[in-house]
Amino acid sequence: MFTRIQRRSEAPRLWVGGGAAGEAKLIHCNELGLGDPGELGLAFSASISYFRTALAECPRTDVRAGNHEWRIERMKRLCGLCLAIGTFLSTEAAAQVNSELWKDKWYWGAQSGVFVFSTPTQSTEAALDVGGHWLITRDRVAMHLAVDQLFFSDGTTSAVADRFDASGVRTVSFSSGRRLQGELYAIPNDGNPQVFAGGGLAIQQVTDAEPVGTFTSQQQADAVNAIIDEVSTKAFFVFTAGAQLHSGRWAIYGKYQFMPEGRDFLITSEQHAITGGVRYALGSSGADITTRRR
């Protein structure tokens, strides 16, 4: 019988051989709870005692402690994996719930803010903007319809042409206006805050424009009033961006709107509206259709 113990430079293992058939068995030191066998070289002995001595010189490791540490490490990895999966599933579930809360709803709401503008006779002015709206949501889009009442400060003026006057200009005063809006929004996310952006068409009207000063004839008054009627209403493209926070059927939001310069309108400058409001989903915007197999 012979025993061969691998050198330090090789993997720690033992070759044990013997018998008439010359059979050999490869035994790794790790399987026996052994560490590095060291520089034992090649030992031959017919005595079993020398084999035991050779084995005894291999430093032993605590197999149970090693297995215990390995199990703890494996449990940590397993717990981390479970935690990651649980977080992902909970996030997906929350997103699904949020999606179901706001999609396919018919929101009714109110808003208020400021409307910023200028006219040929005045520099930058701000008017109070108060109104109501509807927001009809689908998958990733929404339709926005709104009515806004504008309250201009006293003494707000503009100007129109007056061919009968020596200056060629007639001053016009006004204190109120109205906006009708129809827009389409893109809504890319479900969570909070939820952003939206889009555009559409706005019809703006100055509702109480009046000429300032006196007229020399009825013909002059009629001509000026006709011009005022023509420039009191204008359709604009409107562009909107904003964000909202929603909880259940309720949502609060803020948005910014831009409208380009208005030719042939009492408000000739670019127009900016910054508003915020609250909305509530009263019902569904789509009907559920179920079919039964007969």
Describe the structure using short key phrases.
21% helix, disordered C terminus, disordered N terminus, alpha+beta
Q: What's the helical proportion of residues?
A: 10-25%
The 3D shape can be described as: elongated
Q: If you compute it from the alpha carbons, what radius of gyration comes out, rounded to the nearest whole angstrom?
A: 42 Å
User: Could you tell me the number of beta strands?
Assistant: 15
- The first-to-last residue Cα distance is 84 Å
Instruction: Give helix and strand order, one letter per element, not per position.
Output: EEEEHHEEEEEEEEHEEE
The secondary-structure class comes to alpha+beta
Q: Number of DSSP helices? A: 3
Instruction: Report the portion of residues in β strands.
Output: over 45%
Mean pLDDT: 78
What does this molecule look like?
By secondary structure, the chain is an alpha+beta fold. 21% of the residues lie in helices and 46% in strands. Strand 10 and strand 11 form a beta hairpin. The N terminus and C terminus are likely disordered.
List the helices and strands and how they pair.
Blueprint: E1 2-5, E2 13-18, E3 23-28, E4 42-44, H1 48-56, H2 63-102, E5 105-119, E6 122-137, E7 141-151, E8 157-161, E9 169-173, E10 176-186, E11 194-206, E12 210-211, H3 218-230, E13 233-247, E14 250-259, E15 271-284
Antiparallel strand pairs: 1-2, 1-4, 2-3, 5-6, 5-15, 6-7, 7-10, 8-9, 9-12, 10-11, 11-13, 13-14, 14-15
